[in-house]
Design goal:
heterodimer; A: 115 residues; mainly beta; six-stranded mixed β-sheet; five-stranded antiparallel β-sheet; 11 strands; globular; B: 118 residues; four-stranded antiparallel β-sheet
Chain lengths: 115, 118
């Protein structure tokens, strides 16, 4: 069973601060995704990374996939109240034939950005 | 209109009752999933279906059953609800991955059903 550990579990910061959340595993994933979930809604995809060492930027959000494809980080610069939500990482795995692909989700980091 | 819809959005029921949660999608995706979300436990996969004739158990399928009535519809049933099935339930869909070996699988989630079993 592939497991993803996210840290911290909870994070409360002031508007304008920077933060990093982590997603770690002992397993190798073919891809790593980050989702954000707001109260009363389902998760929404932010980014997918597929290459070890890959870095993707989405405005103030920077995502990195570890060289060994076992871990990932999400860095937010100058956080805003609108960034508040549950951030979930999800690792993509498959069997050798590639036909049984599905995601394994971490437990999430609940971020609160206070005005 | 939303691409993935779930009904009902909220449901309160009693122990032992049979409950059905329904999911419909207009995205034309072949793959559909049912997850439950509990505080501190994240999203856990209950069942998934890669096409109408292919249904698979996820990591926590005991006490649940599913039916894929059509490409666009995937329902989850609790045959005899118990209190520890109180949770937020999400349906999700995805398209077939484009290429083996470098597959990615964006999942599109419905708004969720909050189920309380008393």
């Amino acid at each position: 069973t592939q497991l993803l550990e996210q840290s911290p579990q909870f994070l409360s910061i002031q508007e304008g601060e920077n933060l990093t959340v982590y997603c770690n595993s002992s397993s190798v994933f073919s891809s790593l995704q980050w989702y954000r979930q707001e109260p009363g809604e389902g998760p929404v995809l932010l980014v997918t990374v597929v290459t070890g060492g890959e870095v993707k930027k989405l405005k103030r959000l920077t995502f990195q996939f570890g060289d060994a494809r076992k871990d990932s980080s999400l860095h937010i610069t100058a956080a805003q109240p609108g960034d508040t939500g549950l951030y979930l990482c999800a690792g993509g795995g498959q069997n050798s034939g590639g036909s049984n692909y599905k995601l394994t989700f971490g437990k999430g980091t609940l971020l609160t950005v206070n005005p | 209109d939303a691409d993935v819809t779930q009904t009902p959005r909220n449901r309160i029921t009693k122990t032992g009752k049979r409950i059905m949660l329904e999911c419909s999608q207009t995205k034309g995706h072949d793959r559909m999933y049912w997850y439950r979300q509990d505080p501190g436990l994240g999203l856990r996969l209950i069942y998934y279906s890669f096409d109408v004739k292919d249904i698979n158990k996820g990591e926590i399928s005991d006490g649940y059953s599913v039916s894929r009535q059509a490409q666009a519809k995937f329902s989850l049933s609790l045959e005899s609800a118990i209190p520890n099935q109180t949770a937020l339930y999400f349906c999700a869909t995805s398209a077939l991955p484009g290429q083996a070996g470098r597959v990615t699988d964006t999942q599109y989630f419905g708004p969720g059903t909050r189920l309380t079993v008393l």
